[in-house]
């Protein structure tokens, strides 16, 4: 049995006692089971999971009803499609679970060496138990959570790879206790007798509390530094010996292996209510059929001579019972109204869409060899519905590759570099800055005075301490070059964070080279001279302390405390009234304004007596089992006080490539972007400007308050300013820090904070904790019904935010793979988000919605004819079609075309979507799958059903089916209608298809061909023998088919014609331009035409693309249609830049509009499209004229040269007008399209 869930702590005896029965062991075994099923429970458990789906359960009820005598259908034919769907899903589940079982067997039966009877013996992992002494060789994985006893390295050190556990690729060091390092051989291990007292099993990877007592010796404290976790691997160490602490499901790996929260797509959530409406409609049909059937029975009893004695028999069922049975009969014959194959088709389509995401080379990062990875296929359509993006900063918007750029020591600032953020800030103020040319391999820090002042200056001692602290106050592990171990310039540093690595590299650059460390010492070479510092204690960094310290004994015998951390934390612990404190604080503000990451450095000398007293308390706190972390932090506070400030470092984390363009285009697509970062306020603001999240025309409000009253005042001021901005159409943004955010997320302030944030163009939250990140996401999810959120991050502190959002994106960056392992989709760079959402997201959303709507349409069109037939069959629920044809309708004739459409359909090309983000905003804002649109498709299905039934019906009544006047029978009439259904529903899909491939042609026309093949095969059956020949040899069949298709699909064609030409949407305009080859043109610097389609991933190629550069003519007069610039640009063709936000038009020459707001962009976009597309003749005429003019100019390029200046273009246009009355406007023949 296992006490993992109930035990408060764990007592372990070493070596463990022997048990005759393994069930008597007090702890769980070491087996790990990841499979979901067994042979015994697979069938019931899998069926239970599948029948939780509403549609599957519905069809199960229908099949049960079909076994009753009143059923008009044979259950066999209805059972086959359901079994196919259930079987296909079960096979997939079984295959996946088989792979899990196979993996479990391999792991559980792997061998490890366990110490038994005086020697190490091979033992299967599954047989390892708590208390066993185990030996692990290099590159082997740890089979359980192990307490490190000894190792092959000095001081019982070892190196481990934790990549499988937390995703971090850098090696970590673990060290055994010096007091027990002697237990390193079979001889000494045979004499070991000890007890361990540890914490209970938990999922905390960063903490372990316990103590270890060898018989006859004092109690020793255990910490996370002595624990080797299952899933990690031994590296750079020959062997280790340890004691098993946790096994099986009690290990921290398994404790952390809980599945990510189950996420359902927005469409899937909306689907169930739609199904319920269909159930209601179906129930209404059954009720009507039951009532009318019962009434017919009552009224015609004894009168229907042609039905023989059935209804004339007084003992026959009454009208009421006929009605009851009729209700269920109509449910059965109309069951096809619910598309049984919908879920399977959706799964296949989403799976294919996920593979296309993975295969997209535009989202492949060549530098790191990292492709896009779809970790789930459930949410592909949600990528086209995103309303809010919540983004981390470090490693997400920035590279997380740190470079030491500046510092301040003794109140003097050093470093001449210019950051990207500083250049962006200068640009906003109209100042042009040119940063120093960076030579590859040259350090970012450039300032000769720093080393000069180190040699001779009043602050030289402080500079020495600053360099020394960068070299020894860390947890970095040096890796020497095996070929040149004495060449310290080739040492590679394994750092827990990029910041630490950058600081140690900076120290080496200044001549303070850290080259070796042991558990008790740190070795550093200072200006060519080796120095050893005795390492007494390490006070580790965590998110609560926001600082780390080391206590060392210098070569001179002094005990020194060196501390580095966040500025606000360090300043709270300084000696009052320090000489350089104010100057350093001012310089920190400058560094923050330049977007640099800062850390303050301070130190103090500790008296030996004080240290000994403190160290005793520190050891006591470290041996505590309960509240150890809290007790340790309390003791650390007693040492980290009365510090002397040395200075601060400033590290640059450069923006990732393409981030500003990506954010700009995402915001144009109507998506709100919130940045949640742990950085200082000034740093966050300047990064916001550098990445185009914040702009000069925005009003920026700072929400700050240490109490409710201050925050209330900030809210009031921001709300008043927002109201003013709304009136003048000026964008608004807010910035809030961690303290204020904590108050803003209180129950009484939540709604107010959200109401303010939802109307902002951008929101920046700084000094935010990981928990607050998820709370902000939950805030939006709770208060915006129907909103779809996306969270993107790269580190472990982003996991809660990623899991809280509807869609989680993990970036595989420098902080390990924790975010990726918790995400739904993984990308290597933030800029890939642009294509993921604006292109793939929009495509997938439109495909999935069209698939669902079409599935319900075709089934409604097919099944409602059973109701119409009931009118003429005494509401008897007799079937219109043979049972076999009812069952195969969805499988043979309509499944493949919609599957291909759902995978490949695209209304516009990826290049057009790349440069026109308004398509995402205006066409896709959840309008494709509203209840109204759902019923429009269903009503169209009802209309088509009426046409397909009544046209053959009336032709059949007024015209005999054979020349001799003899009726061919009911089944000929049935086959005519069925043929009409196959044609209409497939041609309807052809009309809705906007992107044709050979697979579209093959599946649509192939499905129609399969119908003819199948009906001729069925014609060989006795009951329908010769039916195909009888049907298709009669002219009335083909007459019906022609009339049905014209009446059914004609309105579709007319509607699309009117909509496209008189009420066009944005994508209609883009489609026309693509068709005539007018898209993807830009103007080069010399004014010549160039094609930007060759580089769809380069934002520069789309800078000057105009969506509408078309002119409409009426007689001799010309009305110029203004061009809409879909990306803000400093180049304004035929227009002037507006000094304030909005549009600038030049009505005489065809003005250009500069758009900075998505809603206004969409409005102007639509307005211009409406002007342009007044009627089809005007549209086609002007488009063709444009094309002709363009070709003419290209052919006449040797005689005519274009000027890049808009005024020159206008002059040429005027001259052209004088020479020809048919010439178009000044830009119609230019390449500015």
Automatic annotation (TrEMBL):
Low complexity bias spans: 1089-1100, 1198-1207, 1219-1233
Keyword Repeat belongs to the record: no
Polar residues: compositionally biased ranges: 1117-1132
Main location: membrane
Biased composition (Basic and acidic residues): 1103-1116, 1186-1196
Segments traversing the membrane: 54-70, 275-296, 316-344, 851-875, 881-904, 934-958, 970-991, 998-1018, 1038-1058
Pfam families the record matches: Cation_ATPase (PF13246), PhoLip_ATPase_C (PF16212), PhoLip_ATPase_N (PF16209)
Compartment(s) of residence: Membrane
Domain of life from the UniProt record: Eukaryota
Keywords: ATP-binding, Magnesium, Membrane, Metal-binding, Nucleotide-binding, Translocase, Transmembrane, Transmembrane helix
Every P-type ATPase N-terminal domain range: 22-76
NCBIfam families in UniProt: ATPase-Plipid, ATPase_P-type
Protein name as catalogued: Phospholipid-transporting ATPase
Organism (species): Anaeramoeba flamelloides
């Amino acid at each position: 049995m296992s006490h993992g869930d109930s035990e408060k702590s764990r007592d372990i005896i070493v070596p463990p006692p022997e048990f005759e029965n393994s069930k008597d062991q007090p702890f769980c075994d070491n087996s790990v089971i990841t499979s979901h099923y067994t042979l015994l429970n697979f069938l019931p458990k899998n069926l239970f999971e599948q029948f939780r789906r509403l549609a599957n359960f519905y069809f199960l009820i229908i099949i049960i009803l079909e076994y009753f005598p009143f059923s008009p259908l044979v259950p066999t034919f209805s059972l086959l499609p359901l079994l196919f769907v259930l079987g296909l899903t079960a096979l997939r589940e079984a295959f996946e679970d088989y792979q899990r079982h196979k993996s479990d067997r391999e792991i559980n039966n792997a061998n490890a060496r366990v110490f038994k009877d005086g020697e190490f013996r091979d033992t299967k992992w599954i047989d390892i138990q708590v208390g066993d002494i185990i030996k692990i060789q290099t590159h082997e994985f740890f089979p359980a959570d192990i307490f490190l006893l000894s190792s092959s390295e000095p001081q019982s050190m070892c190196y481990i790879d934790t990549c499988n556990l937390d995703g971090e690729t850098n090696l970590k060091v673990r060290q055994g206790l010096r007091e027990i390092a002697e237990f390193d051989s079979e001889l000494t291990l045979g004499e070991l007798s000890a007890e361990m007292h540890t914490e209970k099993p938990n999922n905390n990877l960063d903490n372990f509390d316990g103590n270890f007592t060898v018989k006859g010796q004092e109690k020793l404290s255990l910490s996370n530094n002595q624990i080797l976790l299952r899933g990690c691997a031994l590296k750079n160490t020959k062997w280790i010996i340890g004691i098993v602490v946790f096994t099986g499901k009690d290990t921290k790996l398994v404790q952390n292996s809980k599945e990510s929260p189950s996420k359902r797509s927005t469409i899937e959530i909306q689907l169930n209510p739609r199904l319920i409406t269909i159930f209601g409609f179906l129930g209404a049909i059954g009720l009507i059929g039951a009532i009318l059937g019962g009434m017919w029975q009552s009224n015609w009893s004894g009168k229907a001579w042609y039905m023989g004695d059935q209804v004339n028999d007084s003992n026959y069922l009454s009208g009421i019972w006929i009605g009851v049975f009729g209700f269920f009969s109509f449910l059965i014959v109309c069951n096809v109204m619910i598309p049984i194959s919908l879920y399977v088709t959706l799964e296949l389509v989403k799976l294919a869409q996920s593979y296309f995401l993975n295969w997209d080379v535009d989202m492949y990062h060549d530098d790191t060899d990292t492709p896009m990875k779809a970790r789930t296929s459930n949410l592909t359509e949600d990528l086209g519905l995103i309303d809010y993006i919540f983004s981390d900063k470090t490693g997400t918007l920035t590279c997380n590759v740190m470079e030491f750029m500046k510092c301040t020591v003794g109140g003097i600032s050093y470093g001449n570099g210019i950051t990207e953020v500083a250049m962006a800030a200068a640009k906003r103020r109209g100042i042009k800055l040119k940063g120093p040319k960076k030579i590859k391999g040259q350090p970012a820090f450039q300032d000769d005075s720093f080393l000069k002042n180190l040699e001779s200056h009043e602050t030289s001692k402080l500079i020495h301490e600053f360099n020394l602290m960068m070299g020894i106050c860390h947890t970095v592990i040096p890796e020497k070059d095996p070929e040149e171990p004495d060449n310290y310039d080739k040492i590679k540093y394994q750092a827990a964070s990029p910041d630490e690595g950058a600081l140690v590299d900076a120290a080496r650059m200044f001549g303070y080279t850290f080259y070796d460390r042991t558990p008790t010492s740190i070795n550093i070479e200072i200006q060519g001279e080796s120095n050893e510092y005795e390492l007494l204690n390490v006070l580790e960094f965590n998110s609560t302390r926001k600082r780390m310290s080391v206590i060392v004994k210098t070569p001179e015998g002094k005990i020194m405390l060196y501390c580095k951390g966040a500025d606000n934390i360090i300043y709270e612990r300084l000696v009052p009234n320090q000489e350089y404190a104010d100057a350093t604080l001012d310089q920190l503000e400058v560094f923050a304004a330049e977007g640099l990451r800062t850390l303050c450095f301070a130190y103090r000398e500790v008296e030996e007596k004080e240290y000994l007293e403190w160290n005793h308390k520190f050891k006591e706190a470290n041996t505590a089992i309960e509240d150890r972390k809290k007790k340790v932090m309390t003791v650390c506070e007693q040492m980290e006080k009365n510090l002397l400030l040395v200075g601060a470092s400033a590290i640059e984390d450069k923006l990732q490539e393409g981030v500003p363009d990506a954010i700009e285009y995402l915001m144009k697509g109507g998506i709100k972007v919130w940045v949640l970062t742990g950085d200082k306020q000034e740093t966050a603001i300047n990064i916001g400007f550098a990445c185009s999240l914040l702009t000069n025309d925005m009003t920026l409000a700072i929400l700050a308050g240490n109490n409710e009253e201050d925050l209330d005042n900030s809210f009031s001021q921001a709300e008043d300013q927002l109201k003013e901005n709304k009136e003048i159409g000026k964008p608004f943004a807010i910035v809030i820090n961690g303290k204020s955010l904590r108050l803003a997320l209180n129950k009484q302030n939540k709604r107010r904070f959200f109401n303010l944030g939802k109307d902002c163009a951008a929101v920046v939250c700084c000094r935010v904790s990981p928990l607050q990140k998820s709370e902000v996401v939950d805030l939006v999810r709770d208060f915006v019904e129907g909103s779809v959120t996306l969270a993107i991050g790269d580190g472990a502190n982003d996991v809660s935010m990623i899991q809280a959002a509807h869609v989680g994106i993990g970036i595989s960056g420098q902080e390990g793979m924790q975010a990726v392992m918790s995400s739904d989709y993984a990308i290597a760079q933030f800029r890939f988000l642009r294509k993921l959402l604006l292109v793939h997201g929009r495509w997938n959303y439109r495909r999935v919605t069209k698939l669902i709507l079409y599935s319900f349409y075709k089934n409604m069109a097919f099944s409602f004819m059973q109701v119409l037939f009931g009118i003429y069959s005494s509401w008897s629920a007799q079937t219109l079609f043979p049972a076999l044809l009812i069952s195969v309708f969805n499988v043979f004739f309509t499944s493949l075309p919609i599957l291909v459409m759902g995978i490949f359909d695209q209304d516009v090309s990826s290049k057009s979507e790349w440069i026109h983000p308004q398509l995402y905003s205006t066409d896709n804002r959840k309008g494709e799958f509203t209840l109204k649109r759902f019923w429009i498709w269903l009503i169209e299905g009802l209309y088509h059903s009426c046409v397909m039934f009544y046209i053959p019906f009336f032709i059949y009544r007024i015209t005999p089916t054979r020349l001799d006047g003899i009726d061919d029978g009911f089944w000929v009439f049935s086959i005519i209608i069925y043929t009409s259904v196959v044609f209409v529903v497939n041609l309807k899909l052809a009309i809705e298809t906007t992107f044709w491939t050979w697979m579209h042609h093959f599946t649509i026309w192939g499905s129609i061909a399969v119908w003819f093949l199948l009906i001729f095969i069925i014609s060989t059956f006795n009951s329908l023998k010769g039916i195909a020949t009888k049907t298709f040899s009669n002219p009335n069949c083909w007459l019906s088919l022609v009339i049905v298709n014209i009446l059914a699909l004609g309105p579709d064609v007319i509607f699309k014609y009117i909509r496209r030409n008189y009420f066009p949407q944005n994508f209609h305009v883009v489609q026309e331009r693509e068709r005539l080859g007018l898209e993807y043109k830009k103007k080069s610097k010399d004014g010549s035409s160039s094609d930007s389609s060759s580089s769809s991933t380069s934002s520069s190629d789309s800078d000057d693309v105009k969506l509408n550069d078309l002119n409409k003519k009426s007689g001799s007069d010309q009305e110029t249609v203004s061009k809409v610039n879909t990306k803000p640009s400093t180049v304004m063709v035929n227009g002037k830049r507006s000094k304030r936000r909005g549009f600038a038009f030049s009505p005489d020459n065809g003005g250009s509009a500069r758009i900075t707001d998505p809603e206004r962009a969409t409005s102007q976009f639509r307005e211009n499209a409406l002007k342009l597309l007044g009627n089809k003749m005007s549209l086609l005429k002007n488009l063709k004229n444009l094309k002709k003019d363009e070709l003419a100019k290209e052919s006449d390029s040797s005689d005519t040269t274009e000027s890049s200046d808009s005024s020159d273009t206008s002059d040429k246009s005027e001259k052209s007008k004088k020479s020809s009355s048919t010439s178009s406007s000044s830009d119609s023949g230019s390449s500015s399209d």
